[in-house]
Structure to design on (225 residues):
C-alpha cells in the first residue's frame, strides 16, 4: 500500500491566547509543529507529508525541521477545509491511505501510530486513535441534569487513518451539505463507513489552552531523555 500524511496546521489558536498561532510556540527546543513533523518523519513508508498552512502565515517558511517529503498546502476556513485542501494537493498521484494528524498533537508516539496502521490496514478498515473516557461525565448547562454512562464513550485523538478516496469523497459531500465535521471520522461516520477505534495513549493531548503547555513541555522533555 501507499501512504501519505496530512497535517492541518492552519488554525489561529484562539483558545491559547498567544501572539502567534499555538503550533509555533517553542517547547523543549523547537516549535510544536516541528515536534509533530519530526514524529511523522520517522515513518519511513510515508511518501508525502502535506502541511496545510494559512496563506498569510509568515512562520512556516522559517522552520528548521526539513524533510524532503514535506509539502505546503493552503489552509481553509475550518479544520475540515484544511484537510480537504491537503487531500486535493495529492489528487494527481493519490496514495491508497492517508493519515491525518493535528499539528497541535506533538506527543503522539510512533508505537501508537504503528498500531493504528497495522490494525486498520490488516482489517482493511479506516480508524482512529482514541482513548476511553476516564472521568464521570455530566450533562447540563448550569446544573447537572444527568450522569452519562461512559462505558462506550471514547475521546477521539489523531492520527486518523482512512482510504484516500473514502475520505476525500466523505469530506466533499459532508462539507457541501454543511454537516458539522470536527474530525475525519465524523465525515466517514456520516458516509456510513466503518471507523475502527484503536486504543491510544491518553497523553497524546491536543495542545489547546495555556495550561496544556507545562504538561506538554514536561512530556516532550521526557520523550527526548
Ligand atoms: N486547523 C487547521 N485549519 C483550521 C482550523 C484548525 O488546519 N481552519 C488545525 C489547527 O492548526 C490544529 C488542528 O487543526 O493543528 C486542531 O484544531 P484546534 O486545536 O482547534 O486549533 P485552532 O483552531 O488553531 O485553535 P482554536 O480552536 O483555539 O482557535
Ligand atoms: Mg479550532
Amino acid at each position: 500500500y501507499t501512504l501519505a500524511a496530512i497535517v492541518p496546521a492552519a488554525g489561529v489558536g484562539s483558545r491559547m491566547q498567544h501572539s502567534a498561532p499555538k503550533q509555533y510556540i517553542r517547547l523543549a527546543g523547537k516549535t510544536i509543529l516541528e515536534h509533530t513533523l519530526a514524529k511523522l518523519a520517522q515513518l519511513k513508508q510515508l511518501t508525502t507529508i502535506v502541511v496545510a498552512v494559512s496563506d498569510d502565515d509568515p512562520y512556516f517558511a522559517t522552520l528548521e525541521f526539513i524533510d524532503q517529503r514535506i509539502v505546503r498546502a493552503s489552509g481553509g476556513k475550518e479544520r475540515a477545509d484544511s484537510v480537504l485542501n491537503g487531500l486535493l494537493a495529492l489528487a494527481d498521484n493519490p496514495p491508497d491511505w492517508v493519515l491525518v494528524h493535528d499539528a497541535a498533537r506533538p506527543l503522539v508516539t510512533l508505537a501508537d501510530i504503528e498500531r493504528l496502521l497495522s490494525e486498520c490496514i490488516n482489517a482493511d478498515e479506516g480508524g482512529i486513535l482514541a482513548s476511553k473516557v476516564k472521568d464521570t461525565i455530566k450533562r447540563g448547562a448550569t446544573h447537572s441534569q444527568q450522569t452519562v454512562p461512559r462505558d462506550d464513550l471514547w475521546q477521539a485523538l489523531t492520527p486518523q487513518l482512512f482510504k484516500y478516496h473514502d475520505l476525500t469523497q466523505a469530506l466533499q459531500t459532508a462539507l457541501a451539505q454543511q454537516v458539522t465535521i470536527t474530525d475525519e471520522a465524523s465525515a466517514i461516520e456520516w458516509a456510513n463507513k466503518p471507523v475502527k477505534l484503536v486504543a491510544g495513549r491518553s497523553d497524546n493531548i491536543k495542545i489547546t489552552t495555556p495550561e496544556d503547555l507545562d504538561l506538554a513541555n514536561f512530556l516532550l522533555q521526557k520523550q527526548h531523555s
